[in-house]
Amino acid sequence: METNEKKTTEEKKPELDRGAIHEAVVDVLKSCYDPEIPVNIYEMGLIYGIVINDDASVDVVMTLTSPACPVAGSLPPEVESRVESIPGVKDCRVKVVWEPMWGIHMMSDEARLQLGL
Q1: Which secondary structure element, helix H or strand E, spans residue 62, and what is its range?
Q2: What residues have CB less than 8 Å from 65, skipping those under 6 apart?
Q3: Could you tell me which of 35, 102, 46, 104 has the C-alpha nearest to residue 74?
Q4: DSSP code of 7?
Q5: How far are the Cα atoms of 21, 22, 48, 87 from residue 104, in angstroms, in the given order?
Q6: Angle at 61 (CA atoms; ends 50, 102), nearest 5 degrees
Q7: Whole-angstrom Cα distance, residue 11 to residue 67?
Q8: Residue 11, domain member (yes or no)
Q9: Where residue 90 sits, what CATH number does that domain have?
Q10: 61 - beta bridge partners?
Q11: Which of 87, 88, 102, 117 has its CA 20 to 30 A from that of 56?
Q12: What is the number of structural domains in the chain?
């Protein structure tokens, strides 16, 4: 006995909620600090870009306050690890760039107030 009904063996993938993942990434970045500065790296203006990819991986483009920053070797891996801990995130790649060069003008108003600038 044949049936004309098609059976699908593929299950639908859950819809990727880029907005929720982006918000969670920002929250995580706001928990990362340069130990010498009492302001998180997001409010400091060190994060230049966050991309949520179709495969639920996250690309973060960031800079540091200077190339000689003492946390240059530890902060990017910390960012990767913290972002990868977010439920729904497949993995994270952090790219450190030096252009445009970071400056105080990149800090949020909140960060400037916190540092008394």
Answers
A1: strand 58-62
A2: 34, 37, 44, 46, 102
A3: 35
A4: P
A5: 28, 25, 14, 33
A6: 120
A7: 47
A8: no
A9: 3.30.300.130
A10: 49, 95
A11: 102
A12: 1
Condensed to tens digits (0 to 9), the pLDDT of residues 2-56 reads: 444 444 444 555 677 889 999 999 999 999 998 788 899 999 999 999 999 999 9
Q: CA 60, CA 95: separation in Å to the nearest integer?
A: 6
Phi-psi domain of 45 (left: phi exceeds 0; alpha: psi -120 through 50; beta: other): left
| Cis peptide preceding 14, ω within 30 of 0 | no
Q: Say if 81 falls within a structural domain.
A: yes
Q: Which domain holds residue 66?
A: 18-115
Q: pLDDT digits over 49-80, tens only?
A: 999 999 999 999 999 988 888 888 899 999 99
- 102-109: average pLDDT: 92
**pTM attached to this predicted model:** 0.82
Whole-angstrom Cα distance, residue 113 to residue 92?
Answer: 31
pLDDT of residue 96: 96
Domain membership flag for residue 2: no
- Residue 110 to residue 117: CA distance in whole angstroms: 10
